[in-house]
Amino acid sequence: MDNENVKVQINTGEAAEIRLVTVNEPPAYRYNGFNYNLESTESFINAVTSKGCTEGTVIFYHENGFNAVLDDRVKDRQKDTLAYGFKKSVLFKEWEDVFQRHQRQGFNQKEFVDFLKRRPADQVAGVEALIANASKMQFAKEVKGGHDINESGKTIRFEYHVNDVVVTAKLPTVIEAFIPVFNESPFVAKMEIELAIEWPDGGTPEIVLSCPKLPRYLEEARAAEVARLKEGLNDFLILAGQPTK
Fold first, then answer.
1. What distance in Å separates the CA atoms of residue 125 and residue 177, rounded to the nearest whole number?
2. 115: enclosing H helix or E strand
3. Phi, psi (rounded to 5 degrees) for 107
4. What would the pLDDT profile of 134-179 be if each residue is shown by its tens digit?
5. Half-sphere exposure at residue 136, Cβ-oriented, CA atoms within 13 angstroms
6. pTM here?
7. How far apart are CA 116 and CA 177, in angstroms?
8. Can you tell me the distance from the alpha carbon of 240 to that of 201, in angstroms, rounded to the nearest whole number?
9. CB distance 184 to 232 below 8 Å
């Protein structure tokens, strides 16, 4: 109704003018809860310690990460929650990208040497010797006279012929690498990276890296994060599972 003047009869019998004013009141405030999305186990622990309470906070862990309801005693509004989905470290993703790429195509010699040179110090065991041996493998664009790859124990002996020259080199079949799996995590996985040399038809040899034990290393890393969670929040209720709402 628009603002308007109306006349009403009051008990004195006299006419009086009253102005009616329409007021639009704002809707009542409704709190919808606050959801915190974290990016490391350390941040999750800090957030629970800061925002939670031992009497009402419930924490859940599962294969994808952690969740928490900061106070499950709240009934009259949406609850505040925390969530952390396991975030892989940059260094781990670099190796993971290589494993995925090598399902289709391996490294040539230069790519392999460059990749090793970009590794942080102490990440790959014996990296200097590995780079030195790999640098000797001057893969030719045109190879004549055949090639031979012999795997014996822990070493691959690689031999090929370019015209009348015989080129040989040795590389390990397993590389040991120490890689932090998750973001901001002190846990470093000791990983066995398998090395193979393949010779595509009509192409040049390729160095292929793979990690058949990768699911096992991921499981170990998840278990280490759960252990950190329980240690850092030992006064809180921590359950295996996920919240349903």
1. 6
2. helix 109-117
3. -80, 145
4. 887 665 444 444 455 666 667 777 666 666 777 667 788 899 999 9
5. 15
6. 0.78
7. 11
8. 51
9. no
